[in-house]
Amino acid sequence: MHARNHPFANPGGKAEVEEGALLMPRFGADGLITCVTTDADAGDVLMVAHMNADALARTMATGEAWYWSRSRGELWRKGATSGQLQTVVEMRIDCDQDAVWLKVRVGGDGGCCHTGRRSCFYRIVPVGTRERLLGFASDI
């Protein structure tokens, strides 16, 4: 997973990374880059995951979302077992080239979360209070 041999250019200087036309993702010391995945039509955040260079390259090549599972220590194609394949409609990289944003359409029934929910972000955390919170509200 931590291999430095990947098809992407090594990050250049600040101006080149921020303003250049070359994709040069900045993988962390763990070899990963954060990926935010949203619904291409509704705009809802579905999940946040991580990609290594292989997952990013496969996503670009296939048009389907691939991720690196930190808990399992392996590459995985989202939906390979659940049927909830994520077809990439658009891919963006942020100004520092250290985070990826996928806009996807999800196939199959159910959702993107391993709990069966549409989104991994199903708990609402109240803000604007100093009181200790004992639980979450849910939007499901």
Fold blueprint:
Elements (H helix, E strand, L loop, with lengths): L13 H6 L13 E7 L5 E7 L1 H10 L3 E4 L4 E4 L8 E8 L5 E8 L16 E2 L12 E2 L2
Parallel strand pairs: 1-6
Antiparallel strand pairs: 1-2, 3-4, 5-6, 7-8
Gyration radius, to the nearest Å?
Answer: 17 Å
List the uncertain runs.
none
β-strand number: 8
Total count of helical runs of at least 4 residues: 2
Q: Per the principal axes of the C-alpha atoms, what is the gross shape?
A: globular
Written as H for each helix and E for each strand, in order along the chain, the element string is HEEHEEEEEE
Question: Roughly how much helix do the residues carry, as a percent range?
Answer: 10-25%
User: Which structural class do you get from the secondary structure elements?
Assistant: mainly beta
User: Major sheet: size, sense and barrel closure?
Assistant: 4 strands, mixed
Please give the alpha-carbon distance between the first and last residues: 36 Å
What is the average of the pLDDT values? 88
Give the DSSP E fraction (strand runs of 2 or more residues).
25-35%
- Strand adjacency order, main sheet: 2-1-6-5
